[in-house]
Design goal:
This is Flagellar brake protein. Keywords: Bacterial flagellum, c-di-GMP, Cell projection, Cilium, Flagellum, Nucleotide-binding. It comes from Pseudomonas petrae. The protein has four helices and 17 strands. With 246 residues, the chain is of the alpha+beta class. It has a six-stranded antiparallel β-sheet with strand order 1-10-7-6-2-3.
């Protein structure tokens, strides 16, 4: 096994149980504004939220208003739910059976810190960011989209990538949905593969939507294209290491 293959081996999940560790990891999600996917038991729909406050003194946290807001009534009625977030390739997840309090201004939900958090280093794969001057054109299309969406590739790893779109496209896409046609104009030719939408966030201040997708059922050919591109960016990053902040 070569070094790069060894680096990609998933690490076994850890279960965090101390309030200090749990609060520290929720703060990571909060400070990086990493999106959360919320699912309720025996319901298939997914909802998006964010951690917006972590209070170690009271052992409480606050979650942002859910998108779509339909999920709020399940939460308000005390239905247990699962929360999953990703931070730099680490899956941070927990289950909540405690009653959350709905807060009006700003619309949010307060409740106790989870008793256990699963911390899972899914990959050690290098995630390469592109320089703003050389962002790559991408397009997402499929049966669930009336028109293809065109944007820019911000960063990429062997398992997925982050994208940027002008304007607010948050109503046109759905978390957890697989889009059959993702096209990226790589320097050595187009790559095409299905992708699963893992997070979506519209930044009103700059009129830009950020999306994160995971490659879905990639062919061997496309996987080699992605690995080649990531390796190319990795070499460039090493060459200009002093100027880059990954």
């Amino acid at each position: 096994m070569n070094a790069s293959s060894a680096e990609d081996i998933p690490q076994p999940p850890k279960v965090l149980t101390t309030p200090l560790e749990i609060a520290a990891n929720l703060r990571l999600l909060m400070e990086s504004h990493d999106p959360l996917i919320i699912t309720f038991h025996e319901r298939s729909q997914r909802f998006q939220s964010y951690v917006i406050d972590v209070n170690r003194d009271t052992n409480e946290m606050i979650l942002d208003e859910m998108i779509p807001r339909d999920g709020e009534r399940f939460l308000a009625s005390g239905e247990p739910f699962r929360v999953e977030g990703f931070h730099d390739g680490v899956r941070i997840a927990w289950e909540s059976k405690a009653q959350m309090t709905v807060i009006d201004e700003p619309r949010s939900y307060r409740g106790p810190l989870p008793e256990e958090v699963v911390y899972h280093q899914r990959r050690n794969a290098f995630r390469a960011a592109l320089k703003l001057a050389s962002l790559i054109d991408v397009e997402i299309g499929g049966d669930r989209l009336k028109f293809p969406l065109r944007g820019k590739l911000l960063d990429v790893s062997a398992t997925g990538c982050k994208l940027r779109f002008e304007g607010d496209i948050s109503e046109r896409m759905q978390l957890g949905q697989v889009y059959e046609r993702f096209i990226a104009s790589l320097p050595f030719g187009n790559m095409t593969t299905p992708v699963e939408l893992r997070y979506l966030h519209f930044e009103e201040r700059i009129n830009t939507t950020f999306a994160g997708v995971r490659f879905h059922n990639m062919s061997g050919l496309v996987q080699r294209q992605v690995e080649r591109f990531v390796y190319q960016l990795q070499r460039e990053a090493r060459r200009f290491d002093k100027d880059d902040d990954f």
